[in-house]
């Protein structure tokens, strides 16, 4: 399949990189201390900023700074375990950086560390959870990503695995939402692919192999 677009906006975790095992271990440890009744590893928590989940789950607002610092430290300590997902290195390194960026819910330090650990170039127009007042599922991250690249949202394609992230892309009014992985089948993505294998973009034409599509 071929689509015309001006820019690509990528979620990071679950789209470009695999950080799930280390994140799950970090959140399990965090929950045992601050929210033992919570199971972090569920689909509806994917793609949401850590600070937003901390605010939601802590017993008292007075604990926010301490609890937020703790999960940030736990995740940062394991950032070096992050691996690239299929096709991610090839697509990002072969696409001119003026035509793509990453819009991640991770904080700036964690986001950069995971991207670098996976061998993916850190884009100059990176958007992190620290850069927006409202995280996904609000549209702010993708609106800012499009703005930083200098394109209208409806000229951009978003790649997302998480339901919350796809909702953010939809709310931002992007031109095409490409879901990545089986979880994306439950969201609002226009099409869904297995991974990024074989996908190319020359700044105008986005090519997605038909044999890589799940939907």
How are helices and strands ordered from N to C? EEEHHHEHEHHEHEEEE
The number of helical runs is 7
Mean pLDDT: 97
SS class: alpha/beta
- Globally, the shape reads globular
- Low-pLDDT ranges: none
CATH architecture of the largest domain: 3-Layer(aba) Sandwich
Measured as a percent range, the helix fraction is 25-40%
Quote the CATH topology of the largest domain: Rossmann fold
How many domains make up the 3D coordinates?
2
Number of strands: 10
Q: Secondary-structure map with pairings?
A:
Layout lengths: L1 E3 L2 E4 L6 E2 L1 H15 L15 H8 L6 H14 L5 E2 L3 H6 L6 E3 L5 H10 L22 H10 L6 E5 L2 H10 L3 E5 L10 E3 L6 E2 L3 E3 L8
Parallel strand pairs: 2-5, 2-6, 6-7, 7-8
Antiparallel strand pairs: 1-10, 3-4, 9-10
Walk me through the structure.
By secondary structure, the protein is of the alpha/beta class. The protein folds into two domains: 2-18 and 82-212, Rossmann fold (3-Layer(aba) Sandwich), CATH 3.40.50.1000; 20-79. It contains seven helices and ten strands. It has helices spanning 20-34, 50-57, 64-77, 88-93, 108-117, 140-149, 163-172; strands at residues 2-4, 7-10, 17-18, 83-84, 100-102, 156-160, 176-180, 191-193, 200-201, 205-207. The strands form three sheets. The protein has a five-stranded parallel beta sheet with strand order 5-2-6-7-8, with helices on one face. It has a three-stranded antiparallel beta sheet with strand order 1-10-9, with no helix packed on it. Helix 1 runs antiparallel to helix 3 and helix 2 crosses helix 3 (64-77). The longest helix is centred in the N-terminal third of the chain and has 15 residues, at 20-34. The chain is globular, with a radius of gyration of 16 Å. The protein starts with a strand and ends in an 8-residue tail after the last strand. The model has no long low-confidence stretch (mean pLDDT 97).
């Amino acid at each position: 399949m071929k689509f015309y677009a001006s820019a690509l906006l990528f979620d990071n975790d679950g789209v470009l990189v695999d950080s799930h095992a280390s994140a799950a271990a970090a959140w399990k440890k965090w929950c045992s201390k601050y929210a033992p009744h919570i199971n972090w590893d569920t689909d509806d928590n994917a793609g949401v900023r850590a600070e937003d989940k901390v605010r939601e789950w802590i017993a008292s607002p007075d604990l926010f700074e301490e609890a937020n610092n703790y999960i940030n430290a736990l995740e940062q300590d394991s950032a070096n375990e992050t691996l690239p997902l299929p096709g991610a290195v090839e697509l990002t390194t072969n696409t001119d950086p003026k035509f793509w960026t990453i819009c991640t819910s991770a904080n700036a330090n964690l986001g950069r560390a995971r991207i670098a650990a996976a061998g993916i170039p850190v884009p100059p127009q990176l958007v992190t959870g620290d850069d927006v007042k409202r995280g996904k599922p609000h549209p702010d991250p993708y609106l800012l990503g499009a703005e930083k690249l200098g394109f209208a949202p409806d000229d951009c394609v978003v790649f997302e695995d998480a339901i919350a992230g796809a909702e953010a892309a939809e709310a931002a009014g992007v031109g095409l939402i490409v879901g990545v992985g089986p979880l994306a089948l439950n969201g609002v993505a226009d099409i869904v692919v297995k991974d990024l294998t074989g996908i190319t973009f020359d700044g105008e034409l986005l090519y997605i192999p038909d044999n890589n599509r799940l939907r």
